[in-house]
Amino acid sequence: MAPNGAAGDNLGETVASDGVTIVAGASAQANGPATGQDGGVYVFKRPGLSWHSAVPVGELRATTPVDGDYLGDHTIAVTPTLVVAGAPDHNTYKGITYLWAPLGPVLSQVAQSHSTWALGSKPPVINPSHRIRGGTTFSFKLSEPATASLVFTEKVRRHHHVRLKKKGRIRFAAKAGVSKVHVDGPISGSTKLVPGKAIVRITAVNAYGATTTATLHFTVH
Question: So what's the pLDDT on residue 137?
Answer without folding.
Answer: 97
